[in-house]
Amino acid sequence: MSRTGQTGVVLRLGSTQTLAWASSYYLPALLAAPLAAELGIAVTHVFGAFTLALVISALVGPAAGRAIDRHGGRAVLLVTNLLFATGLAALGVAQAGWQVWAAWCVIGVAMGSGLYDAAFATLVRLYPVSARNAITGITLIAGFASTVGWPLTQWGLDTLGWRGTCLGWAALHLVIGLPLHSGLPRGRVEEAPPVRAESAPGAHADSGTPAQAPAGNGVAIVLAAVFAIAWFTSTAMAAHLPLLLQAQGLSTSTALGVAMLVGPAQVAGRLLEFGFLRRAHPLLSSRFATAGHPLGVLLLALGGPWGAWLFAVMHGMGNGILTIAKGTLPLVVFGATGYGERQGWLMAPARVSQAFAPLLFGLAMVHWGGRALWLTAGLGLLALALLQGLALHMARRDAVPATSPRPDAPA
Question: Quick one: CATH architecture of 201-403?
Fold first, then answer.
């Protein structure tokens, strides 16, 4: 397929990812209160059901990735649209609390098989050589999911009510999501080049070419821990950042303005990755991004109100780049074979930490107030240390073939 064809795939998946995120992850923020009021249940029940959906998505991820590895992303994503539509429609007609929980269980299965990890696995199966730029393209488009989703949800609440809003999102999965996914290629478009068993990703540090490197379980554990930390911090900030900034002494209006800067900063970080960092090894961009949140916390502590704006930029840019790194770093370290299932396992701890981040960080704020930021800063430094250790491990491993003869080397 031509580059134009790949661009079309990126536009399709970017659009459907925007739809999927807007109608699931970003839905409870506006929907929970009116839903709970009409059904006579606590708002915490709605968010509890959403937390359960995130846990279910973690359990579903490996199986969905395995299905994409075997059959391609087209079929899996088409089923995901049907699941989203079913879950959202069930939510829209719910009459009791247990039905809300049941609906979010269905949506959780859809999230586990239809959000970024599934889209990344689809791209890797289609384009095992050039998937990195395509992954970046998807995140650039879907980075505006909240920008598009929240106004649409609010418009729906104002004009259709919360039930009509849920049914409207369900309909969009059928009239937009299904046709876009049905146009995806059925089979692999690019052929992966033959790679020597002893080659390692460090040998291709200036490119995005995946290499079938003999990375073991220890490397997988390190990456899973890094992603779990990153998604804990990202979700905690998304849930608590305005109040957290007010605890730092900012006014309500200033805190909201600073919090709103995170979204554009994420897109800016992805543009930076697409431009200046696209030829760097993902380990380099991952370390750069992981340092963003701790550095931002330091600037906030030292700079007062001006430091808050710098914190939002550093945190947002780092989070934006890490969204790409979670797709590209495993591809470069492990290669394209079995990518989908492996990605499901690598991201399972991240989805669980994401599910409980609002609650756990909220408890930290109750006990420590604004100083709770030092918790996420410390976790960020731990993730940075893990990535630095991984980089040193890979550098030492890559140096072995260069200094010792291979058994098959000519005499």
Answer: Up-down Bundle (1.20)
What three-state secondary structure class fits 370? helix
**How do residues 223-281 score in pLDDT, each as one tens digit?**
999 999 998 998 888 777 777 888 888 887 788 788 778 878 888 888 887 777 777 78
CA torsion through residues 389, 287, 64, 199, sign: negative
Output the six-digit token pair for 274.
Answer: 């697409």
Q: What values do phi and psi take at 40, rounded to 5?
A: 75, 35
Q: Identical fold at 7-182 and 201-403? A: yes
Average model confidence (pLDDT) for the chain?
A: 83
Tokens, residue 52 = 């359960």
Q: What whole-number distance in Å separates Cα of residue 154 and Cα of residue 159? A: 9
Residue 215, amino acid: A
With b for 16 or more beta-carbon neighbours within 10 A and e for fewer, the 45-80 pattern comes to: bbbbbbbbbbbbbbebbbbbbbbbbeebbbbbbbbb
Report d(CA 12, CA 137) in Å as an integer.
11
Q: Any idea which residue has 């488009």 for tokens?
A: 141
Under a CB-based contact definition with an 8 Å cutoff, are residues 206 and 281 in contact?
yes
**CATH assignment, 7-182:** 1.20.1250.20
pLDDT digits over 185-215, tens only? 876 665 555 443 333 343 343 344 444 445 5
Q: Which of 309, 285, 293, 273 is nearest to 232 (CA)?
A: 293
Domain ranges of the chain: 7-182, 201-403
Structure tokens at 91: 């939510």
What DSSP string describes 173-193?
IIIIIHHHHHTS-SS-SSPPP
